Amino acid sequence: MPVAGIDVGSKLTKVVIMGENKKVLSYVVMRTGTDHKKTSEEAFEEALKKAGVAREDIKKIVATGFGKISAPFADEELTQIMAAGKGAYYVRPTTRTVIEVGAEESRAVKLDENGNVKDFALADKCAAGAGSFVDAMIRYLEVTPEEFGQLALQATRAIPMNAQCVVFAESEVVSLLHSNVPKAEISRAIHDAIADRVAAIARRLDIQDDVLLIGGLAYDIGFIDSMKRELGREVYVPEEYPPEVIPAIGAALSAL
Amino acid sequence: MGKNVDDLAQLKQFKEWFDNRHEYAKKWKKKTGGKVVGYYCTYVPEEILYAAGVLPVRILGSHEPESITRPYLHDMYCPFCHDTLAQGLEGRYDYLDGVTLAQSCLHMRQSYFSFVDRVPNIEWDYYLPFPHGVTNPYAADFAKHEFENFKAAVEDWLGVTITDRDLDRAIEVYNKNRELMTKVFEMRKADNPPITGLHAMYMVVSSQVVDKAEHNEVLEGFVEELQDVENDREIGTRLMLIGSEDYDKELFELIEYGMNYPATFVFEENCTGARYFWGLVENGDDRLMALAKRYVYRVPCPAKDWARGDFFGRRRFQFIEEVIKDYNVDAVIIAQMKFCDPHELDIPALREMLDNMGVTHLHLELDLTQPVGQFRTRVEAMIEAMGEEDLFI
Q1: Is B381–A90 a contact, with Cβ atoms under 8 angstroms apart?
Q2: By CB count within 10 A, which of A38, A120, A138, A247 is most buried?
Q3: What is the ipTM metric for this complex?
Q4: pTM over 0.80
């Protein structure tokens, strides 16, 4: 009988339906919004529909994410750390370091060769190493998320940004714009600043290859580029599945 | 069927004292006509104050956000310093006659001096120098000399003479309190400990704010009653708490009562736990030397137990190692007050020791209020990772 994993994140809710053979039957990504329970319910129903599975046929549902308590229909809960670790090992078994950058939090998880979580580190009360930072910067530069990443690759020089928080970073961006610094270089500076914060969290662990980047920011090619530079090693992103659904896959795996 | 610990009258009394500590001190003052002195650090030899008929109470915070201490303390001073000073500035310690500090760290000292200067009802204050390197062979002599001056200052303030008999009586009361609390802690070695960390915190912190003789009476009954306690709670992961002062009930409620997985603290190595009461005064002819030795040789605060230049090894680490074995500790929560330099200095070496012992550990940074959701994720993930098997692929 199939199982389900649901990840209620601060920005997006992700649901994965998985067969007994560990095959992903469907996945759904939906904006969490303000009514978490309603969204969880809707995303779950849609994923069932996509997979062609009836609700009563689901053997077990495991919830993860900051809003996991908003999925009262779940049978069990799992922390985001374990979910990220399991999901990352599933999509890339050579992964030893998982770096997840979500909307509000970033975290790093160290795995052993069997996919067990050996250690983890999380960001503390700071949005400068999280997706919401990018959202704020994109608004300020008046670009799309795709353009924002592309722009960084076009930069010809690196400008240091000292900001440790979103609000002060915005004022630094304003100063750079007023100094007629090209958007490409500002974009690179922002990406480098986020990568610096995220890498500092990951360095609390003993970083080992392969490094897999998951979470919404793994879409951003400018960020991937900055992370590679910051860590001085290859950084992979999931190929088969969107990077933000990996923890939901991990939650589903733990339901088996 | 055994008793439930939460139903015990003694535990309710500890909680009542903890919750209403200011009211207790005010009533005590009215009843006895005595003086109340607030102390800033557990290195203050309370026995000397007690021998003079004074009620020593530990100055504590309220874990409520405040904005009134910034003119006196830098933002990057620890939340405990801010919180304690805020209580004074807000008038919650308006019953104190005096305040004292035994030198521990710079943050605390700054908070203390601001308290002395800004809280209007303080008529007596005493800054007590205390040796920094408690592993130094001359530390006890140094402390004894300073205790002599401290005693003379108390006598001068109150116009009394503190006799050896007064000191003996105070030492006896304090030792009894230490013995009884140690007995309670010893019971936590059991597979099914009769109390949780939350209960232990109520017991220890209430002893810091009420008359020890009165506390002893309740404690004696508590020790007796605990023999018959049978808890129906699942013990789960046996945790040890290591770190700064921690009397935030929210943290205990979260970890011991509010997680997906059962977990119970079986020992608290901090100054609101065992570091406060562990180790007796071995009284003798020279009372002040006996007191000096107890305070110098107690389980040290990280501010006193240096990583370098020691003569007898890291006493605190040796103690932690023994506790982990004796209490069958599964995992350690290192809960450090934000910006506490002495703890920050110690943590890398502590982690290394725990790694070498194969003991799982997790570091949490305490603030004025705690980020419950974040802490919950971290502790749950630690427990999940401890129990993880090779599940797949």
Answers
A1: no
A2: A247
A3: 0.73
A4: yes
Whether A115 and B384 lie within 8 Å, measured CB to CB: no
Cα B180 to Cα B216: distance, rounded to the nearest angstrom: 8
SS3 assignment, position A150: helix
Domain containing residue A66: 1-92+245-256
Q: Please write the tens of the pLDDT for every residue from B289-307.
A: 999 999 999 999 999 886 5
Q: Could you tell me if residue A239 is left (phi over 0), alpha (psi between -120 and 50 degrees) or otherwise beta?
A: alpha
Q: Which two tokens stand for residue B39?
A: 């102390």
Distance between CA B270 and CA B185 in Å, rounded? 13
Per-residue model confidence (pLDDT) at position B65: 85
The values of phi and psi at residue B37, to 5°, are: -120, 130
Are residues A54 and A173 part of one domain? no
Nearest-angstrom CA–CA distance, B362 and B333: 5
Answer yes or no: do A79 and B393 touch at CB < 8 A. no
Verify that A20 and A88 share a domain, yes or no: yes
Domain check: are A142 and A99 in the same one? yes
User: Which residue of A lies nearest to B379 if distances are taken between CA atoms?
Assistant: A79
pLDDT in tens, B135-171: 888 999 999 999 999 999 999 999 999 999 999 999 9
Specify the pairing of strand B124-128 against strand B237-243: unpaired
B377: which chain A residues are within 8 Å (Cβ-Cβ)? 66, 79-81, 122
Residues A33 and A81 in one domain: yes
